Amino acid sequence: MTKPTIFIDGEAGTTGLEIRKRLEGRTDIELVSIAPEKRKDANERKRLLNECSLSILCLPDDAAREAVGMITNPAARVIDASTAHRVAEGWIYGFPELTPEQEGRIRAAKRVSNPGCYATGALAFIRPLVDAGILPPGHGITINAISGYSGGGKELIALCENPDGNVRGGPFSLYGLEQKHKHLPEMRIHGGLTEDPIFLPSYSNSFYRGMLVETALRLKELKKETGKAIDGKLVHETLAKRFAEKKYVKVEPLQIELEKNYVLSPLSQNETNNLQLLAFWNPDKETVVLTAVLDNLGKGASGAAVQNLEVMLGLA
Question: Which of 189, 207, 220, 298 sits at 20 to 30 Å (Cα–Cα) from 89?
Fold first, then answer.
């Protein structure tokens, strides 16, 4: 049986290198690379995009759109790791655990858009609660997050690893304050929300990879808006039911009484494709804090791309 051929367009970038590292050594696929002397040859790229079973685009948005425009073979399949097609018509959103039907949609798709790293964490707790009627689509949501500096791409990596001293940011740097972050449209649309959440991302120059994404819910407000008896147990049970038996998403037991000096690390899921979800309930204050922990280069990028590849090609 012929092995499916995989072309990574942009394999020299951060995400491309991570994807290649995850795929090297596999015996169920054949990795195809463009010859070094032909990397700027548009005709050679076009040939590979059309002839390979599946291409993964690890390119800036405009270059990703250009690459898709080169594809004329109706059988060619694509995973786009850029922002370009995450809410585009005709593309399937590549978060297999998003809904019970999403994996089947990805399996049948020719065009799959890889989710953003922050959006992956946020959607993991937003979408199940919206679907269950616990979180109204118009409810005002604020999402806070911190990522390792690799989440900022080549420019930020170079600045944070500058041997002459960091010239941008520090142990904690807040950004995206104009509320125009590129992940907002996918959070709204794929979260089933009617308006963008307030999103406050940050990064640290003290660690390369790893991510925390969190939101806080006041249960009194949700009770008033929905007319339902909502407590921390219901919120947790809703998440646990949605992700039951999912290989890469794990909902931890409901957190109520915490150990002294308890802390949650953004590094705990590094080098994996796992997403860890935690619900912290304070019954007295009627609040729940929901947190997602993931590797921004794993489930937030390259790991998700490989998972989507496996779903699309029916690989183990």
Answer: 298
